[in-house]
Amino acid sequence: MRRLPPLNALRSFESAARLGSFNKAADELFVTPSAVSHQIKSLEAFLGLKLFQREKRQVQITVAGEKYLVAVSHALDELDAATRRLISAPNTSSLTFEAPPAFLSRWLMPRIKDFQALYPDVELRLSTGAVNRIDFDHTDLDMAVYFGDPPDDDDIEVHLVHRSVVVPVCSPRKMEEHQIETLADLKKQTLIHVTSRRNEWQRLLLKAGISMTGEEKGLSFSSTQLALGAALEGLGVALSDKALITRELQYGQLVVPVDIELLTGRAFYLVYPKDRQLTYGMRMFREWLLEVMELTEDAF
């Protein structure tokens, strides 16, 4: 049998210790400061230890309190995450999924109809997230696509989805008007960069033995979405993963003016917690995603 203090006492202690004030804790918990003080006194009595030093109108956490705060905060975070998952995903046919904006809108969205046709009983809850940062502990996420280097976390299950290979792309009108046929022609154009990947143009040109001088015309954008939008408008030449522009290439909205590509060294990964029991929806989505992406790779 576990010997645990009351939950309200733990919540009062964690809030007061984190905020450094009984009054601020009371505001956060929607109770009175005296109620917070009473809960903490009961917790101290339960533990037989002083968690705070009380001096006039100020409180100072003790060494024992600091140590206890670490464990209590972790336990409350775990309880909060478990509750979120249970409430937000009450059935095994739903899936809460997050991916970088470009992957979600350019690769996944055009194919959602195919998944729904195969698995009409699976409810997808999709959202965009940070490109290379996933938080399963404090969200109700089931799965996510992560972009970057392989996640270095023993608690995360990782499946390689797609290795990033970029090619130069521009509008057909841009290619014709500026007669872009060689890498030398390419270098004279306005080169469109994504801020977090500014070295890709340099690496691509170096692969062909061409060095950048720093005098090249350029435009920088914060995301792949914006960079490709600029290329579609004829503002310059961007670098993009072919997997993200299949529709634009198919319909002739974008073209690859010069036949060269760069394996960036980064990739898209499907990730989810190892300790998470896979639901029906999670299993079906994982199998579908990996199979469809493999077919996409073969098409290239």
From TrEMBL:
Secretion signal span: none
PROSITE patterns: HTH_LYSR
Any GO molecular function: sequence-specific DNA binding
GO BP annotation list: DNA-templated transcription
Gene3D superfamilies tied to this protein: Periplasmic binding protein-like II (3.40.190.10), Winged helix-like DNA-binding domain superfamily/Winged helix DNA-binding domain (1.10.10.10)
Domain HTH lysR-type: 5-62
Top-rank taxon, per record: Bacteria
NCBIfam families xref list: PRK11139.1
Family statement: Belongs to the LysR transcriptional regulatory family.
Name of the protein in question: Transcriptional regulator GcvA
Species assigned in the record: Amphritea opalescens
